[in-house]
Amino acid sequence: PALLRPPKGASLREYQMTGLNWMVSLYNNHLNGILADEMGLGKTVQVMALIAYLMEHKSNCGPHLIIVPNAVMVNWKSELLQWLPTVRCVFYVGAREERARLFATDVAPALFNVLVTTYEFIMRDRSKLSKLDWKYIIIDEAQRLKERLQAVTR
């Protein structure tokens, strides 16, 4: 996709293109899926390629939601800004006041394509965030949701 701006010398590898095509097939067939490549093989980049594809070829500009563990938020931000520099991203983190400001200025008026947040903040602000009509939801390290739910029910 043209929206995808790989760093100089970088490009999607063949297995990443296969993963992208598989995710596009899931989207076209209204199915969910788990991209379970090994760590370090570029799942984040494949997801960004999917977002670029949806925006360019499906006229699906969002809003898209990406939920990530806190430990990888900085990496997601860096990668999104590098690979999708023209896509409007909101990084929904910070103190309650900062999130309230982001919600009022960017989220509620829908001035974004992608919102990235953590498990913690999606739970804290679920009453507001659940009202949005998310076009696509991506959950990084989804197995942690199960662990988190088990911890809550104990």
TrEMBL record:
<dbReference type="InterPro" id="IPR014001">
    <property type="entry name" value="Helicase_ATP-bd"/>
</dbReference>
<dbReference type="Pfam" id="PF00176">
    <property type="entry name" value="SNF2-rel_dom"/>
</dbReference>
<feature type="domain" description="Helicase ATP-binding">
    <location>
        <begin position="24"/>
        <end position="154"/>
    </location>
</feature>
<dbReference type="InterPro" id="IPR027417">
    <property type="entry name" value="P-loop_NTPase"/>
</dbReference>
<dbReference type="InterPro" id="IPR000330">
    <property type="entry name" value="SNF2_N"/>
</dbReference>
<dbReference type="InterPro" id="IPR038718">
    <property type="entry name" value="SNF2-like_sf"/>
</dbReference>
<protein>
    <recommendedName>
        <fullName>Helicase ATP-binding domain-containing protein</fullName>
    </recommendedName>
</protein>
<dbReference type="GO" id="GO:0005524">
    <property type="term" value="F:ATP binding"/>
</dbReference>
